[in-house]
Automatic annotation (TrEMBL):
Keyword Lipid biosynthesis among UniProt keywords: no
Subcellular location: Cell membrane
Name of the protein in question: ABC transporter permease
Gene of this entry: ssuC
Membrane-crossing residue ranges in chain numbering: 83-104, 116-136, 142-161, 182-203, 237-259
Cross-referenced InterPro entries: MetI-like, MetI-like_sf
Residue span, ABC transmembrane type-1 domain: 76-256
Any one annotated GO CC term: plasma membrane
Family: Belongs to the binding-protein-dependent transport system permease family.
Pfam families in UniProt: BPD_transp_1
Membrane topology classification: Multi-pass membrane protein
Natural source organism: Streptomyces filipinensis
Keyword entries, A-Z: Cell membrane, Membrane, Transmembrane, Transmembrane helix, Transport
BP-aspect Gene Ontology terms: alkanesulfonate transmembrane transport
Lineage, opening ranks: Bacteria, Bacillati, Actinomycetota, Actinomycetes, Kitasatosporales
């Protein structure tokens, strides 16, 4: 440290904090709550046309009436079942295909090109063909949701597997690890960050696909409820459905984030 004048305290160089800072509690709720507050303020001030955009309290009152008469609860349960079945199938298919393609050159030759071709074809454009194949029942809806889910899970997991440093493979060979031990100790930890990215995209995709599918030859579900409300000009009912979809998406994404934070607690990142 350089010398200083008599009586003058030594200068201490301050380090610049380049990290984002300490995590705020319930930070992801601040944006939605601010949006709701702005919506309520604009409605109270009369800046919004009630026929086009009803006030938040009107939407909540409508949601309460729909829940009381049993309409909303039945549609919510139906939508959750469809999304759950499709997500489970898509998750399983995406992970298995990514492992088969990422750990084997033969698997990559057989699988990766096919998945890339599937990704290039708009999934919703497959709806007419799937209706002809599977009918207009629940099967085709679950199948479309599964396709929407498995593609991002496969792509991100496969990319994570391909990005594992080859030096870890060489180290595992030197240590004499078996194939199973190699997958458990090297492959899975290395692929988890990419897998969770794909999982978040898959969760969001399941809700996006659901809202479209439930407006096609459906007799129940939130999308069907919104489609019927459109025919009768019930804007408040449409907003009830949109808010529920938004809550489902936010909650499911938050659950995945929480699981990711627990599972990948060993990582030191800007997020942590």
């Amino acid at each position: 440290m350089p010398a200083t004048a008599a009586g003058e305290p030594p200068q201490v160089r301050r380090r610049r904090r380049l990290s984002p800072g300490r995590r705020l509690p319930a930070a992801r709720l601040i944006g939605p709550l601010a949006f709701l507050a702005l919506w309520a303020a604009a409605s109270a001030a009369g800046s919004l046309d009630p026929a086009a955009i009803p006030a938040p309290w009107t939407v909540l009152r409508t949601g309460g009436h729909l829940w009381t008469d049993g309409t909303l609860s039945t549609d919510v349960l139906t939508s959750l079942k469809r999304a759950g079945y499709g997500f489970a199938i898509g998750l399983t298919a995406g992970v298995l295909l990514a492992l088969a393609s990422g750990l084997s050159r033969t698997g990559e030759a057989l699988i990766d090109g096919t998945v890339q071709l599937n990704r290039a074809v708009p999934t919703l454009g497959l709806i007419p063909l799937f209706i002809l194949w599977l009918g207009i029942g629940e099967t085709f809806k679950v199948a479309i949701i599964a396709i929407v889910v498995y593609v991002p899970i496969y792509l991100n997991t496969h990319a994570a597997l391909s990005g594992i440093d080859s030096r870890y493979v060489e180290l595992a060979e030197v240590q004499g690890l078996s194939r199973l031990a190699f997958v458990r100790q090297v492959v899975i930890p290395g692929a988890l960050p990419g897998f969770f990215v794909g999982l978040r995209l898959g969760v969001t995709g399941s809700w996006l696909g659901l809202v479209v599918l439930e407006q096609i030859n459906a007799t129940s579900g939130l999308g069907y409820l919104m489609f019927q409300a459109q025919n009768y000009g019930q804007t408040d009912v449409i907003l009830v459905g949109l808010l529920i979809y938004g809550v489902f998406g936010l909650v499911s994404d938050s659950v995945v984030r929480l699981i990711e934070r627990r599972v990948l607690s060993w990582r030191r990142t800007l997020s942590s």
